[in-house]
Amino acid sequence: MDSRVENYIRRGKFYVDGWLRNEAAQIIVALTERQRSLGIAGGAAEIGVHHGKLFILLCLLCQASEKAIAIDLFEDQHLNIDNSGNGDLAKFRRNLERHADSARLVLHQGNSMDLCGAILTRLADGPLRFVSVDGGHTAEITAHDLATAEAAVAEGGIIVVDDVFNEQWPGVGDGVRRYFDRQPNLVPFALGANKTYFCRPSHRDIYHDAAAAVSTVTATQFLGHPVAFLQFLRPRLKDRVAQSPAWRRLRSTPIGMPLRWAWHTGRTLRRGLTRSDDI
Fold first, then answer.
1. CA–CA separation, 150 and 160 (whole Å)
2. How far from chain centre, in Å, is Cα 128?
3. Within this chain, do residues 73 and 196 fall inside the same structural domain, yes or no?
């Protein structure tokens, strides 16, 4: 993983307002690396960038020759009919310059309902390798944005949609199902960390395996297709402490030994109290 990408995932993204779990970022990196190994090129785009949390990652993952297309209402928030975001152009630009750069940026301020695949392809100077759909959260907007993304994505491209299974935004799942009633040339291949991933049928197995390689997987189905449900088991606090370099250095020192004794003694007492409560 490129050091700029790694630094952004570990530290930088926490300074950018928005929604992007570390696990989702790791999946996107793994899928991008798989695309590179297959020789798949093309720009990246996001419909609904908010303050740039995910877009910055997509930008960092672009090659020098690839465009990064940012699409948002930004200051035209009177058009944000469902209040599903709050794009801010000034904050977006500051965040992009701080954590990446604007060398590949193509900015499109406007309503995604006025976009089509031909316009998006023209903005990117060709078919896109990766498209994130996270704009309006009504069924109508979601279905339209999916149509725009599908018409612009390359044969080996990937589309990721946010909030398909988020109960706060039922319109997104409804819009996805409405769009798939048209039987598009897309299939889902994975879901997890609040994102659902789609690609052409020709690359389903390849991307399914690439996503599954970085997570625990449960096989399930969505829209009549087999998909990988990506599960991320977060380690408990004591496990994170035990695995940290600082604790490994400290644990056998005159300071660490009493701390270990206190922890294990406290755990024994807690267990005893729990058993007495069960009697």
1. 11
2. 17
3. yes
Cβ(146)–Cβ(115) below 8 Å: no
How far apart, in whole angstroms, are the C-alpha atoms of residue 44 and residue 151?
A: 14
Residue 13's CATH number: 3.40.50.150
Residue 263 domain boundaries: 237-278
Same domain, 125 and 241: no
pTM: 0.82
The 10s digit of each residue's pLDDT in 141-158 is 999 999 999 999 999 999
DSSP state of 255: T
The whole-number pLDDT of residue 276 equals: 44
Q: Which residues contact 275 (CB under 8 A, 6 or more apart)?
A: none
Residue 266 has a pLDDT of 67
Rounded distance between C-alpha atoms, residue 187 and residue 183, angstroms: 9
Tokens of 3: 């050091």
Residue found under tokens 């949609």: 161
* CA–CA dist 112, 72 (Å, integer): 7
Classify residue 94 as exposed, middle or buried by CB count within 10 Å of its CB (0-12, 13-18, 19+): middle
**pLDDT under 50 in the chain at which residues?**
273-279
What is d(CA 147, CA 197) in angstroms, rounded to the nearest whole number? Answer: 15
